[in-house]
Amino acid sequence: MSKFTYSVKDSDGKTQKGIVEATSVKQATNLLHERGFYIINISVAITPFSLNFSRTGISFNDLVHFTRQLSTMITAGLTLVEALGILRQQLSKPTLTKLVTQIEDEVKGGKSLVESLEKNPKVFPPIYIALVRAGEATGKLDVILSRLADSLEKSNNFKSKVRGVLIYPTIVVSGMVIVSFIVMTVVVPRLTSLYKEFGVSLPLPTQILIAVSSLLLNYWLLIIIVVVGGIFALLRWQQTKLGKRVIAIVSLKMPIFGPLFKQATLVEVTRTLALLVDGGVPILTSLEIAQDATGNVLYKEAFIEAAKKVEKGFSLSEPLSRNQLFPPILSQMVSVGEQTGKLGDSLYKLSSYFEAEAESAIHTLTTALEPLIMVVLGLGVGFLVMAVLLPIYSLTSKF
User: Fold this and answer.
1) DSSP symbol at 279
2) Residue 44: strand, helix, or coil
3) pLDDT tens string for the chain (399 positions)?
């Protein structure tokens, strides 16, 4: 769910401002219209930087476990109330037990499962809600939940692979920064006093090293303020329309990492669309939900444009084929799926194809990173050694 700031006029003509939560601008607009407001302006709310930890106490694995267990029990022939009751008794995590108890009580009271889930948007994402609604409407809730659990597990495993390839360079770079800081603040000042004592002529690398060391020692507080302020400003800027667009473009154009980010995005959006379409969710609703499967604003805009075309009667493959963000195989396979009436199957095959491509990109990235990091480390260490040893060599040559 995203937050949108709005400016509206009520039935009395008075202007009101506030924030509304919704999955998209369209949904936010509909919510305000339902309240009887005339919309003057609506835009994505820019919120201060905050760590994106879940405050619900329910992890992604908890959600997968809940979905899998519920699907298994419904498939076994238990009623929804019976399945929720047994599931509640098996749970040991208080937050999850509380959630299941709440859902069970509401279902007992006559509400549908989807109505109960909608009250917990921080736990159940829009795709989850849409699929459960479709499952209840078609009487295939057990099948839908099973597919949903499979998809959640695959998505989590794939994201873990992508995160895993970034851990190694992150650790190495962090180690380099820490070691460099210690050298600059502890080792270099002692060498500087030694060089001054002997009146050694300092080469350029040593002068640069001493200048950086003096900067860190004398202006460390100012540097911390500038760095923290810069990070905060960058995080605020990336929430703006321009910031999101620039970051989206840069992430796709980055050498080595760009292809991986693109393949990862295609995996998520095709898997999401496949699950929704195969689950019986209308194509327009599926396209709207698929926008949330990626944080890249370029792909979000591409799906918004595709939804507009489909709403006018065009096939889905037509706007996809005209957008350079999508490879030709995507529009071709979608076209085949539309013609044969098996769009869901085509999208599943596309998702598997893009996942294989992404894993290949991960392998290439891992292979390329190791020598690249070694080169960077070698250059850094070489510079430090040269800056430290050249004056010593100059000193010994005098005797």
Assistant:
1) T
2) strand
3) 456 667 777 777 777 776 666 666 667 777 777 777 777 766 555 433 333 334 557 787 888 888 888 888 888 888 888 888 888 888 888 888 888 898 888 888 888 888 888 888 888 887 788 888 888 877 788 888 888 888 888 877 877 877 777 787 788 878 888 888 888 888 888 877 777 777 767 788 888 888 888 888 888 889 889 989 999 998 888 888 888 888 888 888 887 778 888 888 888 888 888 888 888 888 888 887 777 777 788 888 888 888 888 888 888 888 888 888 888 999 899 899 888 888 888 888 888 888 888 888 777 777 777 788 888 888 888 888 888 777 777 666 655
> Which helix (H) or strand (E) element contains residue 132?
helix 126-138
- b or e along 189-211 (b: 16 or more beta carbons within 10 Å of the residue's beta carbon)? eebbeebeeeebebeebbeebbe
pTM of the model: 0.65
Distance CA 80, CA 71 (A): 10
Helix (H, G, I), strand (E, B) or coil at 312: coil
Which whole-number Å values give the CA distances from 191 to 183, 208, 332, 395, 398, in the listed order? Answer: 10, 14, 66, 13, 18
DSSP string, 46-73: ---------SSS--HHHHHHHHHHHHHH
DSSP secondary structure string for all residues of 193-251? HHHHHHTPPPPHHHHHHHHHHHHHHHSHHHHHHHHHHHHHHHHHHTTSHHHHHHHHHHH
Angle between the N-to-C axes of helices 60-75 and 141-182, in degrees from 0 to 180, rounded to the nearest 10: 160
CB 238 within 8 A of CB 250: no
Helix, strand, or coil (residue 36): coil
Q: Give CA–CA dist 227/260, Å, rounded.
A: 29
- The token pair that represents 285 in the structure block: 């609703």
Six token digits for residue 356: 């294989």
Residue 294, both tokens? 């990626």
